[in-house]
Amino acid sequence: LAALLHTSFSIAAPNIALHNSLLKAAPQLNQQVLSHALDAVQCASLQGSSNADRLAVIDFSLPSSEKRLWIFDLKQRQLLLHDFVAHGAKSGENHASNFSNINGSHQSSIGLFRSSESYRGKHGYSLRMDGLEPGLNDLARERAIVIHGADYVNPAWISTQGRIGRSQGCPAVRPEITHKVVDSLKDGQLVFTWYPDPEWLA
Question: What percent of the chain lies above the pLDDT cut of 70?
C-alpha cells in the first residue's frame, strides 16, 4: 500500500474478532476475500492515525450476475448493503479476469482505494476514489475511476445476456442504490477490490 493513506481504521491485533463479526453479518462473502480485505485495512492503518468507519468489499472473482459488493459499518460491525456492481468492459464478459492501471484501458483495477469527494457529473451523483497501491490502482483519479450509478447495472439483463452491463472501468452500481452507496463511502472510507491475481498476492 502507498504511504499516502491519511484515513484508516485501526484494528486491534488479531483481526479475528472483527473478521468473525463481519462474516456472520455477510455469510455469502468468501472468508479468504474478507481476510485479505481486513489485512489491507490493517496495513493502511499503519500509514495514518485517523479512522475509516466503513469498508466496501468487491469480489471480482465472482461473476457480474451475482451480488458481489458488500458495504460494512466497521464500528458497528454490521452489513449495510449487498448488491450488484459492474466491472470494466475490457476486463471480461460475465467474469472479470483482466485488470489494469492504464488510462483508456476500460479495465477495472484491484487493490485498496480511499474514497474521496462526492460530486455530480455526467453519471449523476458519483464518488471519486484514490488508489493506494502503486502500479496497481494509483492512477484511479487520473483515469476517472469513480463509483456511479448506471442503468446497465440491471439484474434483468442476466436472463437475456447472462450478465449485467459493463463500465469503462468504474465500479458502477444500480441507480436505485447510488445515493446510499456514495453517502456510505464518501469522505475517506475504504474500498477493497479483490481478484486472486498471483503477482498482486505476492
Answer: 92
